[in-house]
Design a protein that fits this description.
Largest sheet: 8 strands, mixed
Structural class: alpha/beta
CATH class of the largest domain: Alpha Beta
Order of helices and strands: EHEHHEHEHEEEHEHHHHH
Radius of gyration: 20 Å
Number of helices: 11
Number of strands: 8
CATH superfamily of the largest domain: NAD(P)-binding Rossmann-like Domain
Helix content: 40-55%
Mean pLDDT: 96
Bound molecules: nicotinamide-adenine-dinucleotide
CATH architecture of the largest domain: 3-Layer(aba) Sandwich
CATH topology of the largest domain: Rossmann fold
Distance between the termini: 58 Å
Amino acid sequence: MTVEIKRVAVVGAGNMGHQISICCALAGLETSCIDVSPEQLQKAESFMKKYLPERVAKGKLSEESARQAEARLRFLDSLEEGVREADFVIEAVTEKLDLKKELFRRLDQLCPPHTILATNSSFFVSSLLAPETGRPALVCNMHFFNPALVMKCVEVVKGPHTAEETAKAAMDLALKMGKKPVLLHKEIYGFLVNRILRRIMDEALFLLDTGVASAEDIDSAVVNALGHPMGPFTLMDLTGIDLSYHIAMERYRETGDPADKPSPAVVEKYVRGEWGRKKGRGFYNYG
Ligand SMILES: NC(=O)c1ccc[n+]([C@@H]2O[C@H](COP(=O)([O-])OP(=O)(O)OC[C@H]3O[C@@H](n4cnc5c(N)ncnc54)[C@H](O)[C@@H]3O)[C@@H](O)[C@H]2O)c1
């Protein structure tokens, strides 16, 4: 049965959740943005109150649309109240599997029977969460990119349990939000974008580690020949070299394959505490 999606609940008002909520409200959906942290809710609401008038001032949004979006968006600390009437839930809580499992169990109890439950997790496929519910056919991944208000791509991932109608509803919802969704017909670690990005990062690090070219020249080639907005080393400095180190270590722990260990350049930067922009120095110096 296909239900028209009118009410959305976003659980988690952090980096991702607060912006996904605003995207939903701007798309004309009645939206609840839910978090356990009052400070996070406060921050999310303050951001919305600043963001919408800025868009109006820049001529990107009419005053009326901004007013309506604000009226459609509620910030709540009660999961029960926030999801009671939701047609679609987007889970965007902290990336911890046990936390997400517990939340999916509660969502299954609190939501109406037709509600679709989607996870914005970067790495956990929805088949890890679907068995916690009595509605596996209504569970899928819906992976947004950071910052969610700006980035157009959304990966919708269909698990073996996911009904066609569920994946279609997630794709349609993303389209309604003005996104450019892509559908993954099966689950795979890292989904699509992060897998491609990993190949690029690994190759860039190989070229640096083997002395073929400098970080600056590799970045320059990727920007000027491939048309990427920034090179892999600039990107690693932005996302954090500590993150690159931990992701590679986690991969190595899982596979035991020495090829999966962090590259020498990443280890060196990690040990020196040169983790990128946040430390003032990474592959580049930020003075
Ligand atoms: N940050 C990114 O670049 C990015 C990109 C794509 C996907 N993601 C995924 O999005 C999810 C959220 O990431 P984030 O960066 O927004 O994290 P975040 O730490 O900024 O926010 C997580 C929020 O979840 C809240 N929370 C924790 N338990 C909760 C519960 N039981 N009920 C309600 N709220 C709860 C926290 O208070 C916090 O505000 C993760 O699964 C992450 O993998 C992150």
